[in-house]
Amino acid sequence: MVQEIAAAGELSCGQVAELFDVSQPTVSHHLNVLIEAGVLSVRIDGKHHYTSVNQPLIAALSRALTARLNPRRERAARARD
């Protein structure tokens, strides 16, 4: 779901549901989990809720994972600091 939302930039819950072979309540549940985790952000426009990816969080996670999965790079970065 995150990948599809990221590719689109922003999607409503209904638009996300159209992309997967699961029920609307199932999509809503999974979106809520991702929102609570901070992975997705919500913009409300009237009755519609639009979700987008929390890009700063994903970028920070990417940097942290890269550093953790590549110990040499992490040591080099610490040596520069």
Structure, described:
By secondary structure, the protein is α+β, with helices and mostly antiparallel strands. It has one domain: Orthogonal Bundle (Arc Repressor Mutant, subunit A). It is 64% helix and 17% strand. It is built from five helices and three strands. It has a three-stranded antiparallel sheet with strand order 1-3-2. A hairpin with a 2-residue loop joins strand 2 and strand 3. The model has no long low-confidence stretch (mean pLDDT 90).
The biggest beta sheet reads: 3 strands, antiparallel
Tally of contiguous helical segments: 5
Distance between the termini: 37 Å
Average pLDDT, rounded to a whole number, is 90
Shape: elongated
Helix content: 55-70%
Q: What is the topology, as strand order, of the major beta sheet?
A: 1-3-2
The counted number of beta strands is 3
Report the uncertain regions: none
Which helices and strands, and how do they pair?
Layout: H1 2-8, E1 11-12, H2 13-19, H3 24-36, E2 40-45, E3 48-53, H4 55-69, H5 71-80
Helix pairs in contact: 2-3, 4-5
Name a few traits of the molecule:
81 residues, alpha+beta
Brief overview:
The chain has 81 residues and is α+β, with helices and mostly antiparallel strands. 64% of the residues lie in helices and 17% in strands. The chain is built from five helices and three strands, in the order αβααββαα.
